[in-house]
Amino acid sequence: MRTRKEIVGENIKGKREKKTLTQKDFARLLNISNVTLSTYESGRTMPKPAIIERMCEILGCRKEELLGLNYDGSVKDRQKRMLDEIFDNLSEDSRHLLLVRAKELERYDKDIYSYKRKIS
Asked: In this structure, are residues 26 and 37 in contact, taking their beta carbons and an 8 Å threshold?
């Protein structure tokens, strides 16, 4: 399964190529190095929100498209969009802590469910 970074990287590269921009030209427009752009496109690192917004301006696309997010406009999807935006604005350390905590809570929920099934 592809990671979110890989999906975003593929989207950046695909949209850049569709605009017939070289990595060098696109990096120059973004005021970043070729190497940094390469790490984004290969899925090794994720661009910061300000860079993503600038990419969208240059590439003429929505942030959701670049991030590979599909929304249908429902309340659930608007909430998901809001959470995605909050997550994207967190530091790498905060993202990591949040994901670790979510996994802990998921395990806790499974343990509680399993325990309730045993006693019923």
From this structure: yes
Phi, psi of 3 (to 5 degrees): -80, 165
pLDDT in tens, 22-32: 999 999 999 99
Which element (helix H / strand E) includes 55? helix 49-59
| Among 116, 9, 11, 25, residue whose Cα is nearest residue 61 | 11
Task: Assess contact for 29 and 59: CB atoms under 8 A.
Answer: no
Distance CA 81, CA 55 (A): 19
Averaged over 25-53, what is the pLDDT?
Answer: 96
Structure-model confidence comparison of residues 98 and 19, the more confident one: 19
Q: In Å, what is the CA distance from 114 to each residue of 42, 79, 93?
A: 41, 30, 32
Residue 99's SS3 state is helix
Under the banding of pLDDT at 50, 70 and 90, the label for residue 112 is low
User: Angle formed by the axes of helices 34-41 and 23-30, to 10°?
Assistant: 110
Compute the distance between CA of residue 119 and CA of residue 44 in angstroms, rounded to an integer: 46
